[in-house]
Amino acid sequence: MTIMQMFNFPRRGLLTLAALCAFALPAVAQVQKLDRVVAVVDDDVVMASELQQRMNTITQQIAAQNVQAPPIDILRRQVLEQLIVERLQLQMGARAGVTISDEELDQAIARVQQNMNVSPAEFQQKLAADGISNNAFRQQIREEMIIRRVEQGSVSRRIQITDQDINNFLRSKEGEFWKSPQYQLGHILIPVGSSAPSEEVTAARAKAEAVYEKASKGDDFRALAISNSAGQNALQGGDLGWRKTVELPTLFADALEGLKVGDTTKPFRSDAGFHLLKIHEQRGATEQVVEQTKVRHILVKTSAIRDDDAAYKLLMDLRSKIEAGDLKFEDAARDNSEDIGTMLQGGDLGWSNPGQFVPEFTQAMDNTPVGEMSMPFRSQFGWHLLEIEGRRQQDMTDQYIRNQAANLLRNRRYEEELQSWRQEIRDQAYVEIKLPELQDPSAASDEKPAEQQ
């Protein structure tokens, strides 16, 4: 297995590594012969050698998946379009001042090494074995991270999840299913017909109550089911498997309400007889209590006059002064933070809930003890310094459900919006396809026609 196969970077990471492998091919003369501009993309170009390298990668992947490849001319146009959009994203990142510091890049590569369970030296050996230079590898991963950051920043601003969106989802059948807990259930049926004489009903009820008493005192429910149940799963210990409450008869779901793992329902009756249910295990349930964190933060953004190193140094200087007692965190936030919404409150974000912040922020917050500050770190919004003021357990069931539902809806819309956004930036860009055979004959194109070579 090559490093290309083991590396699992988002979006186009596998393509990137395979393309890098092509840098090491010995046919230098061939690469030189291929090199020519195949597309002008605003202020950048796509070279024939890049197109061929990506083509090699795609065809290898298609072959590995054992699927039928499209005709080569169609595939080449699709690959070129991919490269064009990537060029546009990188240009947008450059105009917005999006940069990836060496520290961030080192951290990303370290996570890859950790996931691969290899040492830095072994990782370098794998790169060399795949013909990938360290500098080329780092540059490609840096570009991957810039593209991801541009996408996240641009697309997230397009997605608005309203309270009504959340309400509509939670009221839908899908929403009911999504928020329903899942139980591993045991079932005992003491049979008695709906029209049975009263003495038979009384006897069945008495038997059901006796079984319930035994189960409540700790007797093995599965053994009780084998000995007493007339249910179709009796010989399997009454096992109903994993069931969401919305998949159960209403009578069963109502009986389980308010119970926890290990509890057994009191006998309840249906037309088939008296039932007992036991919750053996539970998973996927909505959390009743969540851990909240009280946090302050300072946000420093990069710009044309302040790069990543300068932002990091500023936060480290502030951190040192705060640790030495020469400065209070809230005062440092008022004077230095660029988060307009919190700077006047000394960076106070209040009590936060799980999933409220971007992953980088959440990770730093969770890894910082109460009463201490984080190290400076970067998110898509800039560089942050956190101070953790407290943690508490809070019953946030309803809000937790709504937050999770909002995240689910946002993630669903992200991919759709991502494709729309990519198409928009492509349509708005100046793109000149230099080779007629690479133009899409089926599309009405606004691109400048190829010039005579």
TrEMBL record:
It is an enzyme of class 5 (isomerase). It comes from the Bacteria. InterPro entries: OMP_Chaperone_SurA, PPIase_dom_sf, PPIase_PpiC, PPIase_PpiC_CS, PPIase_SurA, SurA_N, Trigger_fact/SurA_dom_sf. The keyword DNA-binding does not apply. One of its GO terms (molecular function) is peptidyl-prolyl cis-trans isomerase activity. Pfam families: Rotamase, SurA_N. It is found in: Periplasm. The keyword Repeat applies. Its main location: periplasm. Its EC number is 5.2.1.8. It catalyses: [protein]-peptidylproline (omega=180) = [protein]-peptidylproline (omega=0). Keywords: Chaperone, Isomerase, Periplasm, Repeat, Rotamase, Signal. PANTHER family: CHAPERONE SURA. The PPIase activity resides only in the second parvulin domain. The N-terminal region and the C-terminal tail are necessary and sufficient for the chaperone activity of SurA. The PPIase activity is dispensable for SurA to function as a chaperone. The N-terminal region and the C-terminal tail are also required for porin recognition. Chaperone involved in the correct folding and assembly of outer membrane proteins. Recognizes specific patterns of aromatic residues and the orientation of their side chains, which are found more frequently in integral outer membrane proteins. May act in both early periplasmic and late outer membrane-associated steps of protein maturation. This is Chaperone SurA. It comes from Microbulbifer bruguierae. The gene is surA.
